[in-house]
Amino acid sequence: MKYLDKKEFDKANKFGTGNPNDAFAKYFVGNSFLNPLTNPKDTAVFLANVTFEPGCRNNWHIHHAKSGGGQLLICTAGEGWYQEEGKDAVELKEGSVITIPPEVKHWHGAKKDSWFSHIAVEVPGEETSNEWCEEVSDEEYNKLEEK
Question: Ramachandran region of residue 37, left (φ > 0), alpha (ψ -120 to 50) or beta?
């Protein structure tokens, strides 16, 4: 379900918006928010609810790992997009689950006309790192809404 009204979205966003994602703002077009759900000191699996304002998306990026690794996205509220390099974008809705293997260049974010949240799960692995790449251009992004 699409949400342009923030108050209505907040009712659906059961895991909470959290705080502005200032530490990673340079890797996003638009504003995102981060609500950590686990403490990395307490468990090997880090989960966070990431919220995107309408039109917000992260840059292309790659989750590297010697073994294991990657990321899971569990979509919890609103509507968004996920795209792997060289493939068509996939529409994300509440209940969508995306499995992102390590070494796959991709991006994810909200649709232009909806707030969006997903729980991001960092899959444990050996020698994991994240490589941030170029922005998803307005031209690339705006084409998605034409589909």
Answer: alpha
Phi/psi at 18 (5° precision):
80, -150
Domain range list for the chain = 6-144
| Average pLDDT along the chain, 147 residues, taken 10 residues at a time | 97 97 97 96 94 98 97 98 97 98 98 98 95 96 81
Helix (H/G/I), strand (E/B), else coil: 73: strand
pTM for the predicted model, two decimal places: 0.95
CB 138 within 8 A of CB 75: no
Q: Are 81 and 57 in contact (CB under 8 A)?
A: yes
Q: What is the pLDDT of residue 146?
A: 62
- Token representation of residue 92: 């994300």
CATH fold of 6-144: Jelly Rolls (2.60.120)
